[in-house]
Amino acid sequence: MGTLHLESEDKDFKLNQSRMVVGRRPGVDIVLSDPAVSGRHILIISILDDSFIENLSGTNGTFINGIRTDKTVLQEGDVITIGKSKLIYHTENDGHGVDEEDFEKTMILKPGKIARDLATESQVKAMQDAEDTAAIKAIDPEPKSQIAVLKVRSGPAAGKEVKVDRAMVTLGRPGVQVVVVSRRKKGYFISYISGASGSGKAPSVNGKELRSQSTPLASGDVITLAGVEIEFVI
After folding, report:
1. 83-92: per-residue pLDDT in tens?
2. Which of 52, 61, 160 minimizes the C-alpha distance to 106?
3. How far apart, in whole angstroms, are the C-alpha atoms of residue 108 and residue 207?
């Protein structure tokens, strides 16, 4: 779980909801008294150990470490400036650990086509959060040589490939298993979002089961998800 530390008041706010709005308007999740802050200034979306920020203010702007930003992945120690207020982001994640394209029966999920009737309520919420974060594309493009590719090695879509050239790519089958591959400043990470009981073995990387914590990916790693093997290549 991440936290925001408000310097001016030496106060901490826990990011204990999947979506939290920060602003000056009463009724938002984190209320700041700064008159230079918009009523609804920023949105923080959190999935497991990762948090993402989106600017909601059309005039006042949002700055991360002094750089004006619309949407991005938050990193430990990032300084968020809105109005005259400074919020420092901290995460419990120790560093261990997207819009989607729908190709045939592959594991790449497309917003609006997720079979939510197959998932539990909690899984639906997790997948909705994943879709929200998949729309966040503010990470600066990496050189083409650094853009990763997911290669499907087995199953009906064997041979298909997708570039991870956006913030996040959601992989899985709703109601069975869902993971998210995210591109961050320090590299690529995979997070286990949801899995139905009776869905078989948990998703794994090189045979090691994924837990709730984000896990870093290296070129050549093999992701096994619902019986399908996907190779991660940079």
Report:
1. 999 999 998 7
2. 160
3. 21
Distance CA(163)–CA(151), nearest Å, equals 9
Structure tokens at 52: 């993402």
Q: What is the pTM of this model?
A: 0.49
Q: pLDDT digit string (tens) for 165-213?
A: 777 777 776 556 778 888 877 889 888 876 544 556 788 999 999 876 7
Q: CB under 8 Å to 198, separation ≥6 — which residues?
A: none
CB-based burial of residue 68 (10 Å sphere; 0-12 exposed, 13-18 middle, 19+ buried)?
exposed
Let me know if 117 is exposed, middle or buried by CB neighbors in 10 A (0-12, 13-18, 19+): exposed
CA separation for the pair 69, 160 (Å, rounded): 34
